[in-house]
Amino acid sequence: MKINLQKTCKKQTITRDDGKKINEIIIDAWIKDDLVVIDFNNILIASVSFLDEAFGKLTFDYTKEYFRDRLSLKNIQEYDKRLLNDILTSRYRQKELGLNGLSRPKNKMSENLKRRF
Amino acid sequence: MLNLIYPIRQSIALSNTMFRLYNRAKRSQQKQVRFDLSKTKSITPFGIIMLTSTIAECTLGEKECILRRPQDKKCGDYLNDIGFYEFFALSHPECAEGIATKTVQLKRASGIDYQLADQIITVFDNSLNLSPGVKGSLGMSIRETMTNVISHSGVQDYYVCAWTYPAQKQIRLCITDLGIGILKSLKSSSKYKDLTDDYDAIIKATEEGVSAREETDGYGLTHIKKFLSVNEGRLCIISGKGKVFWKFDQGKTLKQYMAKPFRGTIVKLVINIDKEGYYQLASEVEDLI
């Protein structure tokens, strides 16, 4: 599946609600085990809230290997690449320590994914 | 008429004086308030934001505001440049627009303004040629602070003032809202209901993963702090009676209780243009994408 960030989000790439839209598209694709390719169009996002909601929270249910294997980001600015890597590293570190995702409300998707991974 | 005489220098160093004037204006029963800036010679973005907030409080209380302009020409020109007089004359949301067309860095915004960060970056980048790291981190700081206002303050309106100091190679940015403040916002979550102190609430809010919304949120201020730490800049947060000033350039954190409270939240950032903008350390971050 290919996602054009500019077309999908217009210019709304700041809040967690904005990021949730991308998060849901990725989850839908990953349920079918699809490869997701996201084109950032060289737009500077520079929003922790957006990137964490869109990508960071995927770490609750998906391994690093799955991330590398099933997500490809095109035309992403160096700043956003570093920021996103920082967010993902931090989320995985917390996961290893059992600090996140544990007390959040369980949903159908999480239960389904736990069975798969 | 209530006459408020402003000091020669309006900056964060005189925050207690500025807060006293703010509280006098807010609590006064007088229907007219005169803002006497005749002695003022310099105003930092913090001073502008305090003045603007005080005017906003008066407007909310349906008080008529009268301005006595600074006698100092340089200071008068500065206020003119940033659109302060327009703001003062109108005291309405349509004031101080046009951030992209002139070097106006005073703006009243409402809700998430998707253009705001880009506009400020464009203005500064045109004149200062910012590095990609500083550009990104400045944008990140504006976006996260704005998101915090909308998500946690309980109000939609806020004020932004940004200004460059070419000699010091600095950008100073100040964002404020007249909302419920950090303590009340955190206390709305059962996890932080025992907090009683404004200072403790500010410190708590800057910790990773602390948010009144969800346990999985609360990373914006952490990233702003990380950036300013690497950039050797400064971060000051004032809310209620609490004031915390991180002077990363000096390795100091100052704590102060204000004599008079500010009902909302003020966030002030000092960013060094010629210092590191990327704050993600390669040794600590995995290459996952």
Q: Tell me the helix content of chain B.
A: 25-40%
> Unreliable segments of chain A (pLDDT under 50, ≥5 consecutive)?
101-108
Protein chains sharing the most extensive interface = A-B, 39 and 34 residues
Q: Termini of chain A, distance in Å?
A: 21 Å
Shape of chain B: globular
Provide the CATH architecture of the largest domain in chain B: 2-Layer Sandwich
Can you count the beta strands of chain B?
Answer: 10
CATH topology type of the largest domain in chain B: Heat Shock Protein 90
What order do the helices and strands of chain A follow?
Answer: EHHEHHEHH
Instruction: Please give the order of strands in the largest beta sheet of chain B.
Output: 6-7-8-10-9
> What would CATH call the class of the largest domain in chain B?
Alpha Beta
**How does the major sheet of chain A shape up?**
3 strands, parallel
Shape of chain A: globular
- Spatial separation of the terminal alpha carbons of chain B: 62 Å
Fraction in beta strands of chain B: 25-35%
Mean pLDDT of chain A: 86
Strand content of chain A is 5-15%
* Number of helical elements of chain B: 9
Commentary on this structure:
The complex is a heterodimer of chains A (117) and B (289). Chain A has one domain (2-111). Chain A is globular, with a radius of gyration of 14 Å. By secondary structure, chain A is mainly α. Helix content of chain A is 54%, strand content 9%. In chain A, helix 2 (16-31) packs parallel to helix 3. In chain A, 35% of the residues are buried. The longest helix of chain A is centred in the last third of the chain and has 19 residues, at 78-96. With 289 residues, chain B is α/β, with parallel strands linked by helices. Chain B folds into two domains: 1-96, Transcription Regulator spoIIAA, CATH 3.30.750; 106-281, Heat Shock Protein 90 (2-Layer Sandwich), CATH 3.30.565. In chain B, the strands form three sheets. Chain B has a five-stranded antiparallel sheet, sandwiched between helices. The longest helix of chain B has 21 residues, at 132-152. Classes of the chains: A mainly alpha (117), B alpha/beta (289).
